[in-house]
């Protein structure tokens, strides 16, 4: 199987041409994502033929084999991969990508005719708890739900960007927070019927946030595009920021724009690590 390994702000995936291969992708994702016995990645993304009028379909699988609705970093890399593979025209100024979270527009950013990043129209955030989904007794957007986990009192905001997120703004440095301990307990908490992604956030200024991520199905990752969007939305709702914000993640910086209504826009880099064959 021919593959390309790419990353967006350190969030790394194995990319495969689904026009050429039709395999058990859930099983393949578990194998190739293993950082000791496989290639090593946060998951697998398959470029597939669209089922609607989009240019391309994205299927995204986490390291544990579960299929995810969307990946903000992965979708940028996917478009670059598709351009390189000849699956979409390099003349397209916007590439329409079908995902389980809906059809999204990706705007390639070029330098010397090479794609170095992209802007993505991520769609509007979903804020009603039952639609995120979260099992709590509220019909209103929630940004300060109290949850005690292993001795830690968390104040959570709930946002879906096509996939569910719980966001906690904390005073202690996110680098010292025991994310490997608390992350899986939040992910699998009974109030999250589909499990959940978990972000912890430090406010550095009204224009800059520091973030770490526990991704559902993958664990600690270097970055998360949908998570960055969820954090920006939660920050806006809390009155911390408005307009554009820079998010500093362990793997690099992402920029999110949201004016409180309409679609969220994510911008970030892409990079090819290497190409190869997996037997």
TrEMBL record:
InterPro entries associated with the record: DAP_epimerase_AS (IPR018510), DAP_epimerase_DapF (IPR001653)
BP term (GO), one: lysine biosynthetic process via diaminopimelate
Enzyme Commission numbers on file: 5.1.1.7
Entry keywords, A to Z: Amino-acid biosynthesis, Isomerase, Lysine biosynthesis
Gene3D superfamilies: Diaminopimelate Epimerase, Chain A, domain 1 (3.10.310.10)
GO CC terms in record: cytosol
Keyword Protease listed: no
GO molecular function, one term: diaminopimelate epimerase activity
A Pfam family it matches: DAP_epimerase
Catalytic activity from the UniProt record: (2S,6S)-2,6-diaminopimelate = meso-2,6-diaminopimelate
Pathway: Amino-acid biosynthesis; L-lysine biosynthesis via DAP pathway; DL-2,6-diaminopimelate from LL-2,6-diaminopimelate: step 1/1
HAMAP family the record matches: DAP_epimerase
NCBIfam families per UniProt: DapF (TIGR00652)
Family: Belongs to the diaminopimelate epimerase family.
PANTHER family, A to Z: DIAMINOPIMELATE EPIMERASE, DIAMINOPIMELATE EPIMERASE, CHLOROPLASTIC
Protein name: diaminopimelate epimerase
Native organism: marine metagenome
């Amino acid at each position: 199987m021919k593959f390309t390994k790419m990353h967006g702000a350190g969030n790394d995936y194995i990319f495969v041409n689904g026009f050429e291969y039709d395999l058990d992708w859930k099983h393949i994702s578990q194998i190739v994502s293993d950082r000791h016995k496989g290639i090593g990645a946060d998951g697998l993304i398959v470029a597939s033929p669209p089922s609607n009028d989009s240019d391309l379909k994205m299927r995204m699988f986490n390291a544990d084999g579960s299929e995810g609705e969307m990946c903000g970093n992965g979708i940028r890399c996917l478009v670059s991969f598709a351009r390189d593979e000849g699956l979409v025209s390099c003349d397209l100024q916007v590439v329409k990508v079908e995902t389980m979270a809906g059809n999204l527009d990706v705007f390639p950013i070029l330098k010397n005719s090479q794609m170095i990043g992209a802007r993505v129209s991520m769609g509007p955030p979903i804020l009603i708890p039952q639609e995120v989904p979260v099992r709590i007794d509220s019909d209103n957007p929630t940004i300060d739900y109290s949850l005690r986990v292993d001795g830690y009192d968390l104040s959570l905001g709930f946002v879906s960007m096509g996939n569910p997120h719980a966001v906690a703004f904390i005073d202690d440095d996110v680098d010292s927070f025991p994310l490997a301990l608390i992350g899986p307990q939040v992910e699998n908490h009974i109030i999250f019927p589909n499990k959940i992604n978990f972000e912890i956030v430090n406010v550095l200024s009204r224009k800059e946030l520091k973030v770490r991520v526990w991704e559902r199905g993958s664990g600690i990752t270097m970055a998360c595009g949908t998570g960055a969007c969820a954090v920006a939305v939660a920050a806006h709702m809390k009155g911390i920021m408005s307009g554009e914000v820079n998010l500093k993640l362990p793997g690099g910086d992402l920029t999110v724009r949201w004016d409180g209504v309409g679609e969220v826009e994510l911008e970030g880099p892409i990079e090819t690590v290497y190409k190869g064959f997996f037997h």
